[in-house]
UniProtKB/TrEMBL annotation, chain A:
Domain of life (superkingdom): Bacteria
Protein name: Branched-chain amino acid transport system ATP-binding protein
Domain annotation ABC transporter: ranges: 5-249
Organism encoding this protein: Chelatococcus caeni
MF terms (GO), sorted A to Z: ATP binding; ATP hydrolysis activity
Cellular component, GO annotation: plasma membrane
Gene3D superfamilies in the record: P-loop containing nucleotide triphosphate hydrolases
UniProtKB/TrEMBL annotation, chain B:
Residue intervals passing through the bilayer: 33-53, 60-80, 86-107, 114-136, 162-179, 216-237, 249-275, 287-306
Descriptive protein name: Branched-chain amino acid transport system permease protein
GO molecular function, one term: branched-chain amino acid transmembrane transporter activity
GO CC annotations, alphabetized: plasma membrane
Annotated organism of origin: Chelatococcus caeni
Mode of membrane association: Multi-pass membrane protein
Lineage top rank: taxon: Bacteria
Lineage: Bacteria, Pseudomonadati, Pseudomonadota, Alphaproteobacteria, Hyphomicrobiales
Alphabetical list of InterPro entries matching this protein: ABC_transp_permease, LivM-like
Amino acid sequence: MTTLLTINGATRRFGGLTAVDSVSTTVAKGELVGVIGPNGAGKTTLFNLISGFTPLSAGEVHFKGRRIDGQKPFRIARLGIGRTFQNLRIFPNMSVFDNVSVGAAGMLGVNAAGAVFGGKGRSEAISRRAWAALEQVGLQGLAGELAANISYGRRKYLEIARALAMEPELIILDEPAAGLNDTETRELAAFIKRLHGEGMTVLLVEHDMGLVMGICERVVVLATGRKIADAAPEVVRKDPAVLEAYLGVEE
Amino acid sequence: MSDRLRPLLVVAAVLVLVLGVVPAVLGAFDRSYLYQVANLALIFVLLAASMHLVTGVAGLLQLGHAAFYGVGAYTAALLATDAGLSFGWTLPLAGLGAAFVAVLVALPTMRLVSIYFAVATLGIGQMLYLVMLNWVPVTKGPNGILITSGLTLFGYDLSRPASAYFVVAVVTLASLWVIHRLSHSYYGNALRSLREDDQCADAMGLDTVRLKIESFAVSGFFAGIAGALWAHTAGYISPADFSFPQSILILAMVVVGGLGSLPGAVIGALVLILLPEVLRPVGDFRNIIVGGVLFFSILLMPKGIIGEVSALDLVRRQLGGAWRGEGTKAGSEVGWR
């Protein structure tokens, strides 16, 4: 298995607070890795360090053997990392299809001269990619709807489709189950599993332990910025440090 | 009607209207004042369309647009009077001059967001206006510049009102076509995503800073083109033509027409230029009527006369710019070709 993502001693300090404290781990091609931890454990900060939204205070991040920390988010994205956001960030005043097309356009590139003078081939490629991503999540029937008008659950899939239209090698999902009910969470779990089955490498941050434990091959546990466990779900489940972090110390 | 025929008919209808019907009507009255109104309307259509790109599509609230219009007008006027260049040179140079200034403005301000960016453009607009007003040795200050060389192109004198109208109309239509292509394409989609959530667009692999600067420069370019048209057809320019109220007038056109809608910007400009002219017989009372129309139109149609969603739908259906997924039926066009 080839290593896709390497995080080496990643640290991020905000003033006196160390949100992420020398976390190291790797993600191999084709893996489905979950990151869990209590509130404030540094999960989202870790994701922002990978995708370039937050600069590292110390440490390194490598993707496909290339150092990516310190690069702008759009450059990291173009290397093949697609992501979703914790609080569902779609483009509300654009149609479902236009939302997804932005992911394809970002990767295939758009420019003013091409838009004015022909460039039909490029547009065709963007359209096809966006359509394929919509079909993947089953939203093609809503392609023309305004994104703001579709249901919350479907917007979650829309956000994932937008990242899939980038045809990334690694997809980072930041709390995709937040705000979903049990049935929707189960459907999402099945969808992520299917995506992984099709060969996608997935890094999943989740608050919902059940989702992560149920589908991930490996689980990284963070608590107060530190990595306290990094193993298969059944091992992590019995780890005393993890139990302590989640349930507190027995008096 | 076949799908391929419809866009051609729409384009033909616009051409016939602007280059056939309007000149025929103007010719029937044959008053130079009416030609001047027609030119002014077209110039403001171009100004509103250029602001539509940056404010409506890319979502950058631009409060100094008239200043770029002024940079274009002064570039053209000075090149025509001091350097003796003809319209064939002053027109593109006015556009490039305004685009150049726009890039200079954009570089430091692009990292500002929403209201902060708006205030920065307000400041820049005022600065450029004060330069036009006070740099007397070059701009002649409040006296303005008289352009006596008229409008000559490739050695032909096109200064007569009827021929000048054709020049303004052709330049405006060609510019509108470019802005249409930029707005109604995946490039336009990328600009819209900046307006919606630029951090998110960044995560999709879009170079958001480059796109913002580009849209600002293109918008400045066409404002400069409009400036050259004004300088050569009015024959006289002064700083008052490019003051802050003009920027607000252009903004009002874009908002009343429909923020993010190109047909809306065109209609908004026509309404706000032609309405005061039509109401001329009622005297000073007309300004109150225009204000009332503005107020009630935004109250009753907050999304504008043609909102963005309907505008995109209209362009997709009437101009055949859309794409259709395999196995879907006609009428479910999405995206852009």
